[in-house]
Amino acid sequence: MRLVLVGPPGAGKGTQAAFIAQARSIPKISTGDIFRANVRQGTELGVKAKAYMDAGDLVPDEITIGMVRNRLAEDDAVKGFLLDGFPRNVPQAEVLGQMLDAMGTKLDVVLELVVDDDEVVRRLSGRRTCRNCGHIWHLDFDPPSVEDVCDRCGGDLFQRDDDRSETVRHRLEVYADQTSPLVAYYAEKGILIGIDATGPVDNVTDRALDGLRHHGD
């Protein structure tokens, strides 16, 4: 099975990607993993990407696409894969389609994790990070025993700038601007499945796997 996972920040893509990939016995391929691997290995693309990352700039599409192309050509991805974080927009989706055509294959399904904006804000803005050990707590789902104090090491807890509600809403606006056309693009091709990504993690995984089964695979 060859699938792409999409969803807003805070939808639980990383968690679900790992579970789904394991259940389907396919590699989970995320752009973050690809970037880190190429930088660590000092590949030509990795060196180029690191220069942009060190400057705080976005890595250009052509570098990202080159890394994805190389990763999909590896032996473990020949019989299937789960892509998380790519494509992010319609031009990237078109390039992915051309890439797979050249390999003599195609995408089977695009799985969208659907979560409303208020739930995403609640999930992300409730996170608190320990300054000392880095453990992440959550005011609603996993609160510390004492407010603003880490149960593990006694360190101070703080809210990352990325987790502030106004920042989260801005990230959601960017996601909607880039990804709404992508969702429509795949829906038109008849390979999009949307599942409710709220509730316990296990329930979301069950819905995702059921959706993939009902899709005809």
Q: What class, by secondary structure content?
A: alpha/beta
- Global shape: globular
Oligomer: single chain
What is the count of β-strands? 8
Number of helices: 8
Termini, distance in Å? 8 Å
Give me the Rg, rounded.
18 Å
* H-E order: EHEHHHEHEHEEEHEH
Low-confidence stretches: none
Q: Which percent band covers the strand fraction?
A: 5-15%
The percent of residues in helical segments reads 40-55%
- Order of strands in the sheet with the most strands? 2-3-1-4-8
* Mean pLDDT rating: 92
Report the major sheet: 5 strands, parallel
Kindly describe this structure:
The chain has 217 residues and is α/β, with parallel strands linked by helices. The chain contains eight helices and eight strands. The protein has helices at residues 13-24, 31-41, 44-54, 61-72, 90-102, 117-125, 165-188, 201-214; strands at residues 2-6, 28-30, 81-84, 109-114, 127-130, 136-138, 157-158, 192-196. The strands form two sheets. The chain has a five-stranded parallel sheet with strand order 2-3-1-4-8, with helices on both faces. A three-stranded antiparallel sheet has the order 6-5-7. Helix 2 (31-41) packs across helix 3 (44-54), helix 2 (31-41) packs across helix 4 and helix 3 packs antiparallel against helix 4 (61-72). The longest helix is centred in the last third of the chain and has 24 residues, at 165-188. The radius of gyration is 18 Å and the shape is globular. The termini are close together. The model has no long low-confidence stretch (mean pLDDT 92).
